[in-house]
Design brief:
single chain; mainly beta; rod-shaped
């Protein structure tokens, strides 16, 4: 087995390149998006040889840090997609080892840490438990989003207001009604894109409790110390009771009480302040479930009860579906949580409960884009139409992944051949209704109705990019579309496309698609393509002659239904035979063709046909591809001539019976031999019975009407003459054997035939002269050549034929030595019997 070695190129940062020159092949690792510590990403594994993709066995992937969490398989020849879960720390970079057919190569992939945003979130006012006025927070920094795009979260209380204040943003937060001191973490996230980490701050909420104190000595002086701060002294009353108002800050759980009695004696004692000891946790969700290309990330910030970042064990988070989230620390007290992908039919939002050692809890809602259309459903009633009235009712609607109808906005219907007429949407039905009129589809016998849906345009910043690459023979084509957090396309997006070291700026059309066509590059592929818009980017690979991703800018979703336009009622029946005249004989057959047509002249193919004949056998008809029914007819034995009626009729009277006539004739002959008897009459009283033997047949390579003639006859004639010396009467007897060779033209019509021809005649003869009882002269010879024109007619009976023929034999003698001179031929009529071969 040939060992294929490869070269592995790390995407984003190529920390190592190992060339394996055994076969000149290479292997690339291309992340489709930036790989962030602790997050999921998709990687493309690209295997090529001299610029051509190597399809076949999938590469084996090993990685020392992180894990391959799923495989999408080969998405294009030589291109595999895998899902990779990055490790929780960026160092050391994970090392990938790939094996392809025994070859191995390795490289490292640098990861990007989640970065904190620029700017600072500060608390501008002191907060006290139980206050009824909001606390002011101020966000300052470069390139802040509009106030309406800020996402603010707090584990308690109410976000009263978010507003712009010059270049800064101000947030008013009202604490909850709890009377105890606590530290409340608050997060603010830039909602313009998926890359932003939140700004975090902690609002210390102070309490001013009235601490009840009891002493055994009325009139004592009591002082309270909280974290070194002094409150008092106060004098106890006659009942030994006193109250001290102290300010308690988050994390302060005990105080010290100093009591001085009337005699000056001092006593110190501890005092429990109560309050929460579990700290607090807050979360923000970036993204929604159910949108392709978006994986929600949950940002968490956990603090101790004092407000300092959480130490020790990280929070634990469990979803309402029973999944335990993966927690990755991205800073002191700052974490990211990620969940497995939801089932495709999920339609309820997911609740995520996060706790810190069971002491602090927060609940987050991860939204699911349940109303996002996942498919188009097209229905027709009926799906089989009659050509007499090719009309159907149509409806189309959109369904989410859970099977819920989600409206008909931007949904359209079209037919390949027929006409679509929209119907009013009565009662606000969640389906697009229309009428199909298929007159134009009758000839084709079928039609297809298509429904198409394009996502409505979205708004806001881009969250994801759809990228497709196509390497055609004449151009490299790159298509890209940006979408918002809900997966809706952004029409105003501008893309920066980087290919082979060159950068191009491309604007999206009114449906959000950007398309860039370039001439084929001179360098050897595959080529790395990167597209960026806003803060999101996407990478892919383009091969010469290959494609990866979505390369079409057609409808986002489509569906179809096939309609059959069946024939209408039978209005016309055509019955024919091929041939119309059938020569009989062994194996003789004719095709019987039946065509049923409706009022539109289209073939009816669903009728039940019966074929009957008054003689012979006709098979069951079968439907041909052109809509004609075909059967085979065989004549009965012993019926070489005549006519046969073949009738087509519909079962149960579905159409009227129609008859055609097939004429049976003897089959053409390959030749014939025959015998004829007749009489010859000539000049000078010449007459004699005539016996004829003949053979006739078509001439190979010439017209079938032209036949060759070969014949032999026999007849005798007598005559008297006077001896020139004695003047006595001499009787002459002449026996002739004419040999004929010639041709004729024959025409057959059914069992009847007629012909016209001529032959060359050569006649050997024997002459005997008698003088009384004496035979003074005797001899043999050959008469000079003559000819014999003739015509005739015949009637076929089976393989034989009865004939009558008339002709004139032009033949004369000139031998004076034998005493005969003059014509010896004449008019000949014969009756004959011929056997056809």
């Amino acid at each position: 087995m040939v060992r294929r070695w490869a070269r592995l190129v790390g995407a984003l940062v190529m920390s190592s390149t190992i060339a394996l020159p055994a076969l000149g092949a290479e292997l690339r690792l291309v992340p489709e998006e930036e790989v962030v510590v602790g997050r999921d990403a998709t990687l493309l594994i690209v295997v090529s040889d001299e610029g051509r993709p190597l399809a076949g066995e999938a590469p084996v992937i090993e990685v020392d840090r992180g894990s391959v969490s799923g495989r999408d398989g080969e998405i294009a020849p030589g291109v595999w997609r895998v899902r990779y879960r990055a490790p929780e720390t960026s160092a050391p970079p994970p090392r990938f080892v790939l094996s392809v057919e025994g070859g191995r190569a390795s490289t490292t992939l640098d990861l990007r840490s989640a970065t904190a945003p620029e700017g600072r979130l500060t608390v501008k006012e002191t907060a006290y438990a139980g206050q009824t006025t909001p606390v002011l927070l101020r966000l300052e920094g470069p390139d802040l989003p509009p106030a309406e795009l800020l996402e603010v979260a707090a584990p308690e209380g109410e976000i009263v207001l978010v507003r712009a204040a010059g270049d800064a943003r101000e947030i008013e937060w009202l604490p909850g009604p709890e009377p105890f001191p606590r530290a409340v973490p608050i997060g603010i996230r830039d909602g313009r894109g998926p890359q932003a980490s939140p700004w975090w701050t902690v609002v210390p909420v102070r309490a001013r409790p009235r601490l009840p104190l009891r002493t055994d000595d009325p009139g004592s002086q009591v002082t309270v110390f909280v974290s070194g701060r002094r409150y008092g002294p106060v004098t106890t009353g006659s009942d030994g009771m006193a109250q001290v108002t102290a300010e308690v800050r988050p994390g302060e759980t005990t105080a010290e009480v100093l009591t001085v009695d009337s005699l000056g004696n001092e006593r110190r004692s501890p005092l429990s302040l109560g309050g929460e000891l579990g700290g607090a946790i807050v979360g923000l969700v970036s993204g929604v479930q159910g949108v392709q290309g978006i994986t929600p990330v949950v940002h968490l910030h956990a603090v101790e009860s004092s407000g300092r970042p959480l130490k020790g064990a990280a929070p634990t988070c469990t979803s309402s579906l029973g999944h335990e989230a993966r927690i990755v620390s991205t800073g002191p007290g700052i974490y990211e949580a990620s969940l497995p992908s939801l089932p495709s039919d999920a339609f309820f939002d997911v609740r995520l409960d996060c706790t810190v050692d069971q002491r602090a809890r927060t609940s987050l809602r991860i939204p699911v884009e349940a109303t996002r259309p996942a498919r188009v459903v097209v229905q027709a009633f009926p799906e089989e139409l009659s050509a007499d009235l090719p009309v159907a009712q149509l409806q189309a609607y959109l369904e989410s992944s859970s099977g819920t109808r989600v409206g008909i906005e931007a949904l359209s219907l079209a037919a390949d051949l027929g006409e679509i007429v929209a119907l009013p949407n009565e009662g606000g039905a969640a389906a697009l209704r229309a009428e199909y009129r298929g007159e134009a589809a009758v000839a084709a016998g079928r039609d297809t109705v298509h429904a198409a849906w394009d996502r409505p345009l979205g708004s806001g910043p881009p969250w994801t990019v759809t990228l497709g690459t196509l390497g055609g023979p004449e151009a490299l084509v790159i298509t890209a579309q940006a979408a918002d957090v809900h997966g809706l396309p952004l029409a105003g997006a501008t893309f920066e496309v980087t290919l082979d070291g060159q950068t191009y700026i491309v604007a999206a059309d009114d449906r959000g698609w950007a398309r860039l066509g370039l001439p084929p590059l001179d360098t050897q592929g595959p080529w790395d393509v990167r597209v960026q818009t806003g803060e999101v980017s996407r990478r892919s690979i383009v091969f010469s002659g290959g494609s990866v991703g979505r390369t079409s800018t057609g409808a986002d979703l489509s569906g179809s239904v096939d309609l059959v336009v069946a024939s209408g009622r039978v209005r016309q029946v055509l019955v024919t035979t091929e041939p119309r005249v059938l020569p009989t004989g062994s194996g003789s057959q004719a095709r019987v063709l039946v065509r049923l047509e409706d009022a539109q002249g289209q073939p009816v193919t669903d009728a039940q046909i019966e074929l009957v004949s008054d003689s012979g056998v006709v098979t069951r008809p079968k439907l041909r591809g052109d809509g004609t029914w075909e059967a085979t007819y065989a004549p009965p034995p012993g019926q070489p001539t005549g006519t046969v009626q073949i009738t087509a009729e519909g079962r149960n009277g579905s159409f009227a019976a129609t008859t055609t006539v097939l004429e049976l004739v003897p089959r053409p002959t390959r030749g014939s031999v025959g015998l004829g008897l007749g009489y010859l009459v000539g000049n000078r009283g010449l007459s004699s019975p005539f016996l004829q033997l003949q053979g006739r047949g078509p001439v190979p390579g010439l017209s079938s009407a032209l036949h060759g003639v070969l014949g032999m006859g026999f007849y005798s004639v007598t005559a008297t003459t006077q001896d020139l010396v004695t003047a006595e009467e001499i009787q002459l007897e002449l026996d002739l054997l004419p040999l004929e060779l010639g041709a004729m033209i024959r025409q057959d019509r059914g069992a009847r035939g007629a012909w016209l021809g001529s032959t060359l005649v050569v006649a050997p003869f024997r002459l005997v002269g008698r003088f009384g009882d004496l035979v003074p002269a005797r001899g043999i010879g050959v008469a000079p050549p003559g000819f014999h024109p003739f015509t005739g007619a015949g009637w076929r009976v089976g393989s034989s034929e009865l004939q009558i023929e008339a002709g004139y034999t032009v033949l004369s003698m000139s031998s004076e030595d034998l005493g005969w001179q003059g014509a010896v031929g004449g008019f000949v009529v014969t009756l004959g019997y011929t056997l056809h071969l």
